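Supplementary notes for students who missed Thursday's class. We covered one full example, reproduced here. Read the sequence, then the structure, then the short commentary at the end.
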Amino acid sequence: MSLVAAFVIAVISQLRYLGVALLMAIESACIPLPSEVVLPFSGYLVYKGELNLWLVGIAGAIGCVIGSWVAYGVGAWGGRPLVERYGKYILVSRHDLDLADHWFKRHGEITIFVGRLLPVVRTFIAFPAGVARMPLWRFTAYTFLGSLIWCWLLAWIGLKLGEHWNTLGGYFHRFDTVIGIVFLLFAAWYVWRHVRNLRRA
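Structure (token representation):
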């Protein structure tokens, strides 16, 4: 984490708003670069009077949209055929893909919006939206709105913490742990359900 923090600080110190957008684009392209470091440090620079809070939020949200387009595109143009061909090896069936399509058609907006406000989930939510071929303009709008709230809020917390901005990381690691446990429980249930169906078949 110290190496990641050093990289983030160097990029933002040199590139300012462009650096914020670039780093958030990397995070949203399914590369786990923690926004819990990027944005609080940006907020610290707001505290020092070097950046503007709203411009940090907007730059971060634009970066999230750009990175999410990459992940969405991979999911839309290569995701489903690959999953249909090789999904059986990771217990993903065509029925599961159909369920995901149906879910995104009915609840895609709220899924993307809420997903953008959750640690870990926000990094990977764009790919399944692409696989499900969620309409791009809706995906973009809800990605921007959710990301703007996330980016502004973390930068604002960094502003309020001032020179102690880096203490925020410890709190978010706790959220990461909770979400990780929930994910593992879901994965265990998912595997059990598929094994049970295979035995019945």
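Commentary. The chain has a mean pLDDT of 78. The two ends are 47 Å apart (CA to CA). If anything here is unclear, bring it to office hours.
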